[in-house]
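Batch manifest, entry 17 of 40.
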Amino acid sequence: MSRKAAVVALTALAPISWGSTYFVTTEFLPPDRPLFTGLMRALPAGLLLLAVTRKLPQGAWWWKAAVLGALNIGAFFPLLFLAAYRLPGGVAAVVGSVGPLFVVGLAALLLGDRPTPRSLLTAVAAAFGVSLVVLKAGAALDLVGVLAGLLSALSMSAGVVLTKRWGRPEGVGALALTGWQLTAGGLVILPVAALVEGAPPALDSASLAGYAYLALGNTAISYFLWFRGIERLSASSVTLLGPLSPITAAVVGWVALGQALGPVQLAGMAIAFGATLFGQLNPRTSAAKKARPFSSAEQKGEKVSMDLEVSTVRR
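Output type: structure tokens
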């Protein structure tokens, strides 16, 4: 397996893990507590990673970590849950699937990556495939829910692009950067959850097991792999792995909950998965393009290998 293929495979484990969130939430966690669930996903995982890495931000990275944490976690989770509560699940997933299109536009503005017909068509195909998997006939639309879904996708997309732009400081690993963002995001959610949902609910053993899985596997490990992938791949390549999440959710629903998968859903899976794979292929023209300068940490520790990877995936 090539170096890039290994990076893509590891990064893909993040959205695959996120696809199990719905099943765990509905089967193991207290109902109607989405903000508390978001808080329990982010803050314990962030504090655990801070304890493991024993590194705190320095200088400008205090506000950079706060911005990234707010975009990737603190704003994304509440907006995502608001969309999920105001919209049918399929509609919310379709609205969120426009993220790759947002990334294409933001990457052009902030990274200098000009959008190409290839990247645009791939993003549209991925969104179309997701819509076939999850969208039901007669699904109702709610303006607040649609806006929340769009803003959640925009928040995550901006977080992906800024993470790519800023890299990470010298001497700081991806694990520490993940801990900074999860902690900052959890602290953003904390007052919102307390104000909207009040005191924490009573937790039984099943709830504790569910929250432990969400905090460790679904968040701490998954976001570490996600942010690590952002460093090594182009922003559009990373975000085009996102459709693996609704595909995984549909498969888990079929296997664990007995939810039917018809020909339309299977066709949508094939289209979305094909767009995901196509988004990882190397454009023929990429070798002639120059890669964006890396951060000092990348230049020190991983410059040669990451130069090769990024030069092959830049659009």
